[in-house]
Amino acid sequence: MSQRCINDLSTELIIYIFNFLDLRDLGRLRRTCRRFRDIINCWDKIFLKTTTIVSNQNSEKFLTRCFSIIPTKLEKLRLQHNWKHGIYIEKSMFPIRKKYMPWIRIDKENLWFSRGHRIFNYKRNKENIIKSKPNYVLTPKYPRNYSGSGISTFDVTRFTISKDILVGGLSDGGVYIQNLEKNFDFYIDKTDNTYTSSVDISPDHIMVASGMRNDCFKIYAVRPDPIGLTHIHTQELGQRVWCVSYCQDKPLFACGTTAGGPFKKSIWLYDTERYSEILNMKLGHYISSTFDMKWDGPNCLWTCGNDSYLRRWDLRTGQCEQKYHDLFGYSLYCLDYDYFNSIMVGTYLHGRIALWDIRAEKCVQFYFMHGAGGNAINSPVYSLSFDSEYLFAALDQYLNILDFGAYGNRGKHDYIKMFSK
């Protein structure tokens, strides 16, 4: 009687057997022969039923900023292991002596990085993550009919990009807009000598909102050709506006404030058709600023601020339904979300970023940024963005990039394990 081996079994039986193996055994088995490798790669969703964090790529919005598509569930689990246990290679780039408050945005092919009065565009690649030299540099300019014509020397505070339109806020109260297909189209509106804290553009690209330091937000209509802005509405709130954001799924607009003044409301919601107030929310008896926010579908909103809480608001109840407290009680300056189960926040000290799984109560991991020489950095994380493999952090003197595609335990920084003891 001839001997038979497991490789002689049908694919259905092999998949049934593989269901009894754990992740480590499947990884080893995948390296034994080509057939087992193909079966595990093709059918891993059947016997690997866990949902990953960061590397899940379940949202179309998140996929637009992922450099590459993760091909198999095993690779997603490997990347999740690296995110959870702090296994990464860190690069600290573009050191400078002067301190700034930068802002970053990424998509599949580009990284946008503001520093001072310039916005740099870098092309992403696999080997170096981004090229060392910028693809091009944008500098806001005043229109010819403005008394201060020429290049603006005021800092870009925040900016956003939607399709081919870039909108930025300036530290002199101006708002900058540019069509990226036509590099020389620009416009600055500067009606008040104040500070633009935040900007956003509506999903249909016909309205721009700016949050101002002088206790109001402003709405502008976008002129398409040549591109420009027309001021149409100012809403006085009696408290400084730190962040503004349009909902992509409903005609809604949200702004986060200092929660001061007579109302002590931290978050305000408006109907974008009439810009009439429909809801406002406060943090109980606390008076706390809201520094950043992200929409989670049409009915939920994530926010962070100086009370050291990351909060999820449900607009249907008008209440905070989830909240996560920073372990060290630091202010939270910025956040980013994968629109599924992973959210990260940047804190105001030590260049620290915290990763949260919204299904769990405890923080998953901390990431501390370092300088070019490996020294610790005592800087806020002013802005951050991430995809399935990389984390980008904008600090006062550096741009740091963490690559989680590393193999083995090289570069392990399991800080959450250290602080949990």
Automatic annotation (TrEMBL):
Q: Enumerate the SMART domains for this protein.
A: FBOX
Q: Which InterPro entries match?
A: F-box-like_dom_sf, F-box_dom, SCF_F-box/WD-repeat, WD40/YVTN_repeat-like_dom_sf, WD40_repeat_dom_sf
Q: Which GO terms describe its cellular component?
A: SCF ubiquitin ligase complex
**Single Gene Ontology BP term?**
SCF-dependent proteasomal ubiquitin-dependent protein catabolic process
Query: What residues does the F-box domain cover?
Result: 3-50
Q: Domain of life of the organism in this record?
A: Eukaryota
Pfam families listed in its UniProt record? F-box-like
Record-annotated membrane-spanning stretches: none
Name of the protein in its database record: F-box domain-containing protein
**Species, as recorded:** Rhynchophorus ferrugineus (Red palm weevil)
